[in-house]
């Protein structure tokens, strides 16, 4: 009786070989914790036509609580030109924000004569927390003074506590964008961006294996394997007796492996690399409809 049982099967959206990737694999009817792409970005865009030939300046107060190499906060300013060309671009990559006190940061640059848009915002790279407040975008007038460009919700005062910032694009997976009243620089609120894994519960796409579908493959030396692609599960576990060799035992043994000591002069490392590379090319080769490749033959071919 399969009433009340759930189907569990793998879905693969591309091949993800690292924790921070746009590609992912997921089992149906299981939760998947997705880490960020490595950066949580905040963005807003204004029209640049009226400001062509001038200088533009982005100014904001930022503070960061980050530790470890590569983790940082940054502001960024970009001028887009006709034909999808990028004009001026400065993302503070050479002067990252890593201090926990509020400080004012400024980026300014030219607006090209064919500029179409001015994009700007803030970003956190890696792990940690970054706060942003008091955002201003200014253009320099002919007399040398600076005039403010009207932008949406510059101080995040329009938002409710704990909500998302209105008027801004803020949607990088694995990061949370949260308006907070705790220790703002100006006004009563600021924006907090921090890394927070996203839990994915839905399927990656509609296609899925069905119970009864199998993969049968020759292993070699007279051995073959038959692997089911979908199983029934209940209460988060597939049906069947508990295996004598538990997953907890395997995970404990894997935790004892010192990854830093593994190098290319270790035969097991080289064999593992072959297994990974061959399977990536075999299952995620992008030109199946163009080139007919016998992957089994490629694995054993002598070079």
Summarize the structure.
The chain has 303 residues and is mainly beta.
Walk me through what this model shows.
By secondary structure, the protein is mainly beta. Helices cover 11% and strands 40% of the residues. The protein contains three helices and 18 strands. The protein has helices spanning 247-255, 267-284, 295-300; strands at 6-13, 24-27, 32-34, 39-47, 55-65, 72-81, 85-90, 103-110, 115-125, 129-140, 146-148, 175-180, 190-195, 198-200, 214-220, 223-228, 230-234, 237-238. The strands form five sheets. Strands 5, 8, 10, 11, 12 and 13 form a six-stranded antiparallel sheet that branches. The longest helix has 18 residues, at 267-284. The mean pLDDT is 90.
Largest sheet, in brief, is: 6 strands, antiparallel
* Strand coverage percent: 35-45%
Instruction: Please count the beta strands (DSSP E, at least 2 residues each).
Output: 18
Label the overall shape.
elongated
The radius of gyration is: 26 Å
Class per helix and strand makeup? mainly beta
Number of helices, where a helix is a run of at least 4 consecutive DSSP H or I residues: 3
Unreliable spans are none
Percent of residues in helices comes to 10-25%
């Amino acid at each position: 009786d399969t009433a009340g049982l759930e189907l569990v099967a793998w879905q693969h959206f591309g091949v993800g070989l690292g924790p921070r990737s746009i590609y992912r694999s997921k089992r149906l009817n299981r939760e998947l914790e997705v880490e960020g792409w490595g950066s949580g970005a905040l963005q807003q865009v204004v029209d640049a036509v009226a400001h062509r030939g001038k200088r533009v300046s982005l100014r904001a107060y930022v503070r960061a609580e980050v530790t470890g190499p590569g983790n940082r906060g940054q502001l960024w300013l970009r001028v887009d030109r006709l034909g999808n060309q990028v004009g001026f671009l400065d993302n503070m990559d050479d002067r990252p924000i890593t201090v926990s006190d509020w400080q004012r940061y400024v980026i300014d640059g030219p607006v090209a004569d064919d500029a179409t848009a001015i994009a700007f915002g803030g970003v956190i790279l890696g792990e940690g927390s970054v706060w942003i407040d008091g955002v201003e975008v200014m253009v320099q007038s002919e007399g040398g003074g600076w005039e403010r460009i009207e932008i949406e919700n510059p101080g995040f005062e329009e938002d409710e506590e704990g909500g998302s910032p209105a008027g801004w694009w803020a949607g990088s997976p694995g990061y949370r964008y949260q308006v907070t009243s705790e220790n703002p620089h100006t006004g009563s609120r600021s924006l907090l961006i921090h890394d927070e894994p996203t839990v994915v519960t839905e399927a990656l796409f509609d296609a899925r294996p069905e119970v009864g579908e199998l993969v049968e493959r020759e292993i070699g030396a007279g051995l073959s394997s038959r692997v089911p692609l979908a199983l029934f599960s209940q209460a988060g576990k597939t049906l069947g007796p508990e295996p004598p060799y538990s997953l907890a035992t395997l995970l404990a043994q894997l935790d004892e492996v010192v990854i830093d000591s593994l190098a290319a002069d270790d035969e097991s490392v080289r064999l593992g690399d072959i297994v990974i590379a061959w399977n990536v090319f075999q299952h995620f080769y992008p030109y199946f409809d163009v080139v007919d490749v016998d992957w089994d033959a490629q694995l054993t071919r002598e070079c």
